[in-house]
Fold these 2 entries.
Entry 1:
Amino acid sequence: MKNAKYLGSELLSFAAAKLPDERNGTKARAAPSRRAGRTLPTRYIDLFERAPVGYLTVDRRGRIGLFNPGAARLFGMDGASIAGRLLGKLVSAESRSRIATFLAQLFGERRRLICKIEVPSKEGQPETAELVGTVSEDGNECYIVATNISARRRNTKEMKRSQAELRKLSARLVAVREEERTALARELHDGLGQMLTALTLDIAWLQRRIERFVDPEKRKESLARARELRKNIDEAIAIVRRTSSELRPASLELMGLWPALEGEAARFASRSGVKCVVRPFAQAARLQNPGLSVALFRIVQEALTNIARHAKASLVEIACEESAAGCKLTIVDDGRGISEVESSDPNSLGLIGMRERARSFGGEFSIAGAPDSGSRVTVLIPAKALRGTP
């Protein structure tokens, strides 16, 4: 067996023998060419010895042959300690069977394999390493690249935790905004709406008094002014009702999602001139989760806004299907079709908002289109969210 040693010294002779002859492209043992005042084999040595990952060779008995400093660091040892050691002795007890299986498969199947192991550390918490192994041409040893992936796992775990917190925060902000919309809509309807209605009654009273005027000219002028005032008040009432409905449709709370969508489709068709058809559940029952009803309504509302602005469509269809797995909401138009660049644009806050609304209930959101063949928005909501448990 070879004496265990750092990979650099053996690599120097190997690289010198394998360098191509620049004159005819053949392999030659001539003195290596120099680049920037250093021999190419020396550059190879630097590459391996300074690599942040570990490189090592292991024979059929599992003993370490060649290795670089990165491998020694990974296993928490110096060069003298790791020399000639059994690889299985350097990992945690739980990982020894995995190492044995990994090496047996490597030498038996002679193909590239990957294995994850736990390595004891001085801090007490085991480090996770990923081993990627291949077998030499003569089949007597294997080459292993060892990477410490603990930091990557910790970062991934932290990222997932942060994303979950941001999603909770986003859901809370959406909920607060919906509460504010509901309060404002109620204030407009119950407060300002009632005041305007009272003014309408006052104007009617004034009109009856004006009709008693003796002077015909004065009566005519006053009635004209009263009618104009009545017209302005009626327009203000219509604006209040429309604004209140846009903030929070009363039908959404009183009758449920599908009647609210039908009303929104009618308003969309009136404003845009685009035909909009709603195909809800047959004999649909109201969703048990009011928050989900609001989320689906807002998704449809945003989708219709995007269609009116960008799609150049003549027909929109809104449909929903229910199954044991949950429900699927689709909004399909026959417009120009959204491009892949547009659908993945990180600055498209409307699409991001729709996606987050779906995710807040454990659902999925997707949008796809084809040139001149329209676009399709699909929202999948799991059954548990329909029952009020997102």
Entry 2:
Amino acid sequence: MHRICGPETPVLESLIFELRRSTDCLFTVAYLDEAVLSKIEYEIEEQLKRPRFRLRILFRASDAFVDPEAIERLRQLGLRRAGRLEVQYSSTRKFHAKAFGFKMTKSAGPTVILGSANLTGAAMDFDSGELGVQLAPGPVANGAWSAMERFWSEGRAVTPQWLRTYERAYKRIRRGRKPADQDCEKWKKRFKGPRQSPTGKHDFGAESLFIEHVKPLSDDERAEVEEALKKRGVEDLQTPDRWTCYEYRKDARAVPRQSNILIFQWRTTNVADGLEEVSISRLQEGPIPLRTRSGERLWLLYFAHIRGRRVRLLKKDHARHTRALKTSGLSWTMLERTPQIPRGRKASLLEFVRRLGVKLS
């Protein structure tokens, strides 16, 4: 299934997720910088430890916009793992693609992220103003991957000699850009004002409501899930902060992908102990099938919190939260038994959520 990347779900999260589970990765981007390398360099190094992992990066050099220090940083990283990380520059002046491709195995169909985001720190962050689409394996993704391979075949390797020549051109052009950059900064000051979300304001209370209850895993359950994730090549993920386990595939598939989801994360398996966190999230990935050491079949969904719609609840405030619940005409047991699609209690639920401090509009 295809899905949208951004503006509230940063592309970086999807990139890291796909890097961890893929063996063949191809990035074809116009620009890259050191800001994003600082965020993903460790992740790339960790994945390069896997014997079959390969990453190729192609960038635009015709306008000498990419900082040569960022190129050298990538080149040095590739030298430490010879043949596993390759860096090339496009030989054509028109190259301006922004595409990130991933294959879990050599014969598997690719997943491709296309959009407006370059491999830069600003484009990969929250509220970046970028928009993209993640193509699931299929004919469209296959076509995108083929185009990326053509771009790669036209690329040329980054050598020390070429990089020295490029650096001289970069410095010469930067000297000429300084007066223009100063004029640009003066012009940008005219547009300073309140920062607004690219998507505008949402009134979550007026939208359809879907509820998820997340209860903590025991230490044994957590260990089994993490072990199963590692076998799938997906490591270092928070469980259950963002991963939620389902025993039945139909329940996991029932969670809507394009809707806002109100998540109640319980402090313990005893509902009387109350909530640890309330958030409004979106489904990011899944369902992913796992089989634990004990042979149990699980389905996992990965949720991403919507910025500014997440409230952590302190244990010391439990009495106050209980009073807010009663004021809204509910109890902890009634809240825990609320179905995924509430009927007749929506107003009471939203009143309680507002009292906890979650912004709904």
